Amino acid sequence: MKIAVLSGKGGTGKTLLSVNLAAAADNSVYIDCDVEEPNGHLYFKPDDVITEKVSVWIPFAEEKKCIGCRKCVDFCKFNALAYIKSSLLVFEEICHSCGGCVLFCPQGALSERKKIIGEIKHGKSQNTTVITGILNPGEASGIPVISTLLDNGPHDNQVVMIDCPPGSSCSVMESIKDADYCLLVVEPTIFGVHNLEMVYELVKLFGKPTGAVLNKCLTQTNPAEEFCSESGIKVLSRIPFDQDLGLLSSNAIIAVREAPRYRELFTELLNLIEQEVQHEAAANS
Amino acid sequence: MKQLLILSGKGGTGKTTIAGVFIKLASAKAYADCDVDAPNLHLIMRQTASASKSDYFGMPKAVIDPERCRSCGQCKANCRFDAIEYNAEYMINKSLCEGCGVCAEICPTQAITLMPYKSAELMLYHSNDHTFSTAQLKMGSGTTGKLVTEVKKQLISFAHDSELAIIDGSPGIGCPVIASLNSVDMVLIVAEPTISGISDMERIILTASKFRVKTAVCINKYDINIKNTEHIISYCYENSIPYVGKIPFDNLVIESTNCGLSIIDVECSSGDAARSVFKSTMEILYVH
Questions:
Q1: CATH class (in words) of the domain with range A2-54+117-284
Q2: Do the Cβ atoms of A75 and B101 come within 8 Å?
Q3: Fewer CB within 10 A of the terminal residue: chain A, N end or C end?
Q4: Across the interface, do A11 and B11 touch by the CB < 8 Å criterion?
């Protein structure tokens, strides 16, 4: 069972929820797809960590073979190539690794080499396998790291928590592609609701079964509650604003492993999600 | 024009709240929201006039003409983005297509063309007293870096004689953040005293330093973890990064935000602290 945790807005509690839900399960996998700012590993502090590099293909020219015809320069839609002073320049940061320049060089002067843009760390923390994607600072796109992350698996018979990046762009889409269920985490602000609207559109587009957790609930009117009821999003849980939980999380401590009341809270939520997924599977079979 | 960019690495630390405060305190005549993926600044910087909107076309998308396609499969074999699907006929998955044009070039029957694709909407609020530039990315779209550049271009072309521009950035360290860093005079990082917030702050400081931008740090919600707050202050000190102050956690922030107000519009402790952060930041921004 793969559960993607997403929110649109940052800082609403995606990592808090995915980490604690993974820790509440008997046998689970936690995958951190927020490769620009991965934080789940700070909570899990996994052991036996194995690191795998993630690379993309970058073209380079063999100067002897290049005749300066500029076919590659004209072809490249990303303007990642330039022919200046009798040599071909490659702007690696903006290359999308489409391979077109290599394919269409009439002289066969271009080849590709691997360029490392990030890494994936696999480790173990009690009952949870922790897989983290990390994009190197200065690199533009984390998509290759995310797709490598999600190629790991199949993780059969395990609870898989996918901690998504904020926003609703292509990297979020990549992260939820294979999910069985999308869990939306919302804070009680108009910012949170505004960004949720977009992410909810995305989830609907993919036709994923969806539920919401209202996090950091206060006593005042909650704009998130209103949005969910208007849009027909099922609210699975309401987590009150809780200073103790906040303090534990600020120290990157997994609440489920610390106090029975949090174990209860997150186990209950996990059971609810499992029921929802089974329900959905039964409805579609 | 001086450009001040507000970043954080981690999301939800208070970038937009701080940006709103700074715009008001500086009476800034130019401001922009570069968090094109999840823009929120317009929610607290209410505009009386309506926006002039324009379509933003990102990379084009490939389209296959079924009349011309002979199903040779060359396009699918050479697409690096798995954007071509076969189900009785070859089709482009628009959300995966990056517009590289390999398929169009390789197709032996010229059945594939690249078509313009609207990936966002740019919005400009321009009046006698201020200019506000923002955009909304179509969900699931990419190329946010270029769009961020467009948001900034729009701001500068309409407000080039403004003295100061305040720019609300996006979370993370990738493409949109790198694009927003271009040609700014200073970055203010809004840090949060959590282990996650510290880790993300270090990554954004590293990213900003790669582009040689002057950087300062303020701490938001500092009292949720005093120990971590002290850690951030000493980190700044050790790495010679100017530290410009701290703002306490305050329930009134949520309340005022939900009413579309900034924290300096109401009487609260966080508002006072934010004023002091503003003052220190401006002192650094205007030091040559």
A1: alpha beta
A2: yes
A3: C
A4: yes
